[in-house]
Amino acid sequence: MRINHDRKAFSLLLLAVAISLFSPYVFQYFLFKPAATLSTIELLINIVVLIGIFIVEAIVTFRLTRKEASRDFANSKLNGLTSAFLLVSFGVLPPVLDSYFFHWFTFNSFWLFFIGNALLISGAIVRVVAIRELRGFFNHSLVLYDSHQVVSTGIYSKIRHPAYLGTLLMFVGFSLSYKSIASLFLVGFVLLYIFKRIRAEEAMLESRLFDTYRHYKQKTFCLIPFVI
Question: Residue 131's domain spans which residues?
Fold first, then answer.
């Protein structure tokens, strides 16, 4: 069965993020002018960085996506569309709205902006490296391919789920890049979802790869090197 959830999820995520980023301008035009925490230049830098990240990941993902038959093992609560919804709900909207309107958790600090973008870019690099290393086995939904095998080279020789680590770095970085710590209060919920997805993914891989994957698990960390 050909899986097309990946492209659909990524496209919807890109649209949702774009709407979230530009919604303050709509409010500003029709309702009132919010006192944004970011300067115009800082806002433009954030938008350019985020668009650049999406373009690079889209190119890498779509170029490496396998065309062979595959089976979708994902529970509907763990597929790519759900991940996209949670990322926008917990990672994008809170800091954007806080930065533009509420200012409950904002700090007018250039260093927050700088550290946030550094984490955002670092997380994106980790994700792209992880996607490339999987050589086409990557998918935003939980999928097994007919030729699926354990990848234990490169970054996967140390941790089993570097793409999720990259996502976590981007989650924190995006909030800080808007000089807001709003999303930091939601990291726990994101981690719960990530570990739930990891358990489902590893159970799926063990069902196909058996002892090969179990042996690989014993030699590597799950998400963060030397921590867990």
Answer: 5-219
Residue 216: Cβ within 10 Å count? 18
Q: What SS3 class is residue 143?
A: strand
A 10 A CB-CB count for 2 gives 8
Alpha carbon of residue 8 to chain centroid: 15
> Is 136:60 a contact under the CB 8 Å cutoff?
no
Evaluate whether residue 145 is within a structural domain. yes
Q: Which one-letter DSSP state was computed for residue 71? A: E
The pTM assigned to this predicted structure is 0.82
Q: Is residue 225 part of a domain?
A: no
For 145, phi then psi, to 5°, come to -95, 160
In 3-state terms, the chain is what percent helix, strand and coil (to 5)?
Answer: 70, 5, 25
Question: With 0-12 CB in 10 A as exposed, 13-18 as middle and 19+ as buried, what is 125?
Answer: middle
List, run by run, the mean pLDDT of 10-residue segments along the chain (228 residues).
Answer: 52 59 53 63 86 85 66 54 70 82 88 95 95 83 80 93 93 92 87 89 87 91 89
